[in-house]
Amino acid sequence: MSAKAVSVGPAKPDATKERAALIRLIHVGRREIQMSEDAWRAYLQQAFQVQSSTQLSLPRLRAALAHLRRIGFVPKGADGQPLPARPEHEWTFVDSATVSRQPLLRKILMLMRSTGVARGQQVAYVEGIARQMAGLGATAIDKPLPMCDEFELRRIVVALVTHIRRTKHRVEPVAANA
Question: 10 Å Cβ neighbour count for 64?
Fold first, then answer.
């Protein structure tokens, strides 16, 4: 009698399990807040240019779940108690900004990631640069970053690019040999 070798396929990576869990949670949330299938597909098309949540990457699935939480979905655990939400970071307002301002805010976010400024202090850093922009006939921007219009955001992007270029090319003084 010959023994059959049982071939076990490779185990699913953790990201695949997490992705499947997020997709299930998103569909539960969509049903719980009573969002129609058409409205959900319209959201996916507008926000991510896809037709189905199965076409979303892991970060985009997290963004879609965050959107559902913002509009009222409260995930519950096996015991029926609400799950704790992930702590919001300082850039969460970017997802809820108007569509015309989102690319500029994302550009500012990416510029700040390229600097050495710690998370949690980046928005304050950008707002500080915006306040210092008065000069050469321009007026300073003295309001919170989420309240800035497209024109002000464009000025902030230019100021940040200039600031990053200047700090990147800044040469450390060489100590004189004593």
Answer: 24
